[in-house]
Amino acid sequence: MHQSQLFTKTRREDPSDETSKNAKLLIRGGFVHKEMAGVYDYLPLGLRVFNKIVGIIREEMNAIGGQEVVLSTLQDPELWKKSGRWSDEAVDNWFKTKLKNDAELGLGFTHEEPLTNLARSHIVSYKDLPRYVYQFQTKFRNELRAKSGIMRTREFVMKDMYSFSRSEEEFRQFYEECAVAYMNIFKRVGLGGITYRTFASGGSFSKFSDEFQTVSEAGEDHIYIDDKKRIAVNKEVYKDEVLKDLGIKKNDLREAKAIEVGNIFPLGTRFSEALGLTYKDENGKQMPVIMGSYGIGPGRLMGTVVEILSDEKGIIWPESIAPYKIHLLSLGTEKKVISAADGLYKTLTKAGVEVLYDDRDLRAGEKFADADLLGIPYRAVVSTKTIAEDKIELTERKTGHTSKVTAKELLSL
Amino acid sequence: MHQSQLFTKTRREDPSDETSKNAKLLIRGGFVHKEMAGVYDYLPLGLRVFNKIVGIIREEMNAIGGQEVVLSTLQDPELWKKSGRWSDEAVDNWFKTKLKNDAELGLGFTHEEPLTNLARSHIVSYKDLPRYVYQFQTKFRNELRAKSGIMRTREFVMKDMYSFSRSEEEFRQFYEECAVAYMNIFKRVGLGGITYRTFASGGSFSKFSDEFQTVSEAGEDHIYIDDKKRIAVNKEVYKDEVLKDLGIKKNDLREAKAIEVGNIFPLGTRFSEALGLTYKDENGKQMPVIMGSYGIGPGRLMGTVVEILSDEKGIIWPESIAPYKIHLLSLGTEKKVISAADGLYKTLTKAGVEVLYDDRDLRAGEKFADADLLGIPYRAVVSTKTIAEDKIELTERKTGHTSKVTAKELLSL
To answer: Model's pTM, two decimal places?
Structure first.
């Protein structure tokens, strides 16, 4: 991509109406645009990052047998009345709307009800189980406040998976497989070492659920980490009897603020019983299906990465989710520089390397500042000086380490 | 994919609450699920088709310089008041909702207003133009009636592109490039020969707009086709003075019902003036940006393909958008059949061929009926008979033509 043609521009100043680091940097870099509090658009560079995160999650979900669907936003009240989750008293963050005939509809904040209902058409016998179904779908949550940038918004894409199993044992096996897949995802997006599987309240569904918490001062959660076991306990269940139950010693724990980047929930028969999802077992007996739900918000993950992998100059994207791998900069307007940079851009893109090419007529300082802000892993500079040496000046964003390389070396990075 | 593990099942009977052919076949095949009138979920097989259509559209939009974004569903009334499109009198298909503080929001039915507004942050000078920005985004339209299956729904993904140009000339050049890209898309999804660029009303924006109409009895539009010129005129502008204007003779026209599968609109300065999107020209003068909009609904395209490319037995997907390329069927429960079919499935998938493998313990007749209904281009049968001949029985869904082929021939299809 020629940066001179890019739809978005960077800006030097922080937006005045944002307090979170992720929103400030993402807006300055032109990755996102704020429509209103808690509502963001994804612009070309931001969408590339977002889609790479989605791609990683999809791979991991497919690897454990997930089948992808997309359910609707508009929700029929009848299904939600069956589970007792339609009223605003039961669920305090519904967005609701109306059809022309005045019939009320909801905007889905999650999808247990419609998916359980539709599974009734496809799951009949024990032979139809287990099944794992997931989607990347836009959720709507009528949050009172929204001040954490793209980490907590009123409208966001969620990867929500639902498992349908015959027995508690079959369910637990998948639940643990999914926990492993989740840790793979956090590792692959660059948050591996600081993300902990965390015991949390199971709400009305079960004794415990599992959260995945990434340590960050920007987090809204408080967790207690056991560094030896590499697990944590959410403050909400940090009680003597719970710790005893889990075999965790208080003295082994340290407190930290953290961002909830994923969660997995045992649902038991809560929804299958309410909506009538049963299967015929080997003996011909109708049994309720055992369910679980598994959520990750790719936008929240992206925001978390920015909170953690950034410095005073800008973002430091991990290569796995960077909008481009190489940021190629031409310095100066001399013909031979432009022609060398043009040639290098062609060579790299032809070889399938993702390159953002800053071909704009700007001073070196401005280009360097933009490169630091955008946070593409490798900055490659072409100037009269580098041409004289028949080399390219390569700087790694993460370490700041600079070296002189050949075009061939750049290709095999 | 092993069909025994597929989340969805087919059904023999038409759903009783659908009148359109596309909804009947897509629901029977388990491609989609109806949540309520005009609201559908995409299930694994349906989502594969949908995503292939999206992929084709994306390629064509990128090829003409499109840059992809995703804007929000939730809409701030302030922007729409500026263009005069907020009130329900001005726009009769808004879905509206409310924040906790009772402030009203809209659910976007299109995105001229927010995109024009956000472009103000990025388009400043003549050097920032032209720009072409598109998205695949869920639109909400509060339709009074919805009875055309997935072709006209209350919630649907639209590919909407918006062009920003410096002059009428620059705008027209892109408009024509986009018209060519649109015809490429219709051709690639299998609707080439029967889709016509069609003069239609420009509404409040301009004299004419261009629709792309696919001839079908299921269509809601009436068009008049000039077969020699391969263009058409929508009934709404079928008037003597218009025909004269366009140089079309009434006698050359034939009437047909058609489905509007795409449209492109000159917007002039309608939105740039209302929302204050100007650029500084070479002489330092502030000028309003000339805009256009370009829409295609991948779901409507999918429904149109089903209306047209189907027979009494089911769907006939073109290979370009089929959920899988090959439908592999094992007949019987003999060990050597299962082992041969398993082996062939492995060989094909390893080579990157997309295969749905019907490994279920069902009678041949049931498997054949499902294969016809699902409409995958090639059906490959493995049975005791084919093993004896060391061949595979290959049947093309489109023609019904059957032949005996080797595994190697199957691989190079």
So the answer is: 0.98
